[in-house]
Design goal:
Layout lengths: L2 H18 L26 E3 L5 E3 L7 E7 L4 H17 L4 E7 L5 H11 L4 E4 L2 H6 L8 E5 L5 E6 L4 H21 L3
Parallel strand pairs: 3-4, 4-5
Antiparallel strand pairs: 1-2, 3-6, 6-7
Amino acid sequence: MSFHRILLLICTAILVGATFSGCSSPRRVEAADLKPDKDRHAAPDFALKDADGKVVHLSDYKGKVVLLDFWATWCGPCRIEIPWFTELQRKDKDRGLEVLGVSMDDDGWEAVKPFLADVGVNYRVVIGDDKTAQMYGGVDALPTTFLIDREGKIAAVHVGLANKKDFVDGVEQLLEDNQKVADTHVP
């Protein structure tokens, strides 16, 4: 059984368990829970191909706030979050946000391209692999989403389905933090 099929079984078990256990939810990371600067570590760089076959490096986005989402087309919680990320990309791209999706689909672009078209994803997506997942601490559940600051450091990690407000608040705080720093350097 492939790694990604095992993840599907885990995601399904978690969703079924939450349904029958009164929908108790795990602790969520909120904007106030962004790691302090001193506790952030550099997000691992990678080289993965996008739908056009172009190689994408995370380091290409240095200077931007990045929402890095590990997901798959078969993942129900991923399908819930993706429209939120599309909205964030549309709303905050001009302020320095870049959403980057890392699909973990075993079927690659054959499964991903039609999904992206159907859902209307407006941000860049690459196909990930087990090596990339391991670089990020062994992504064991989908979705797993990293908020990365403009310095390329991981400010927060959301494992599983998070609340939309958690993403909105975290992105807003990271975008504002940079603005405050820029304002203090204006003569």
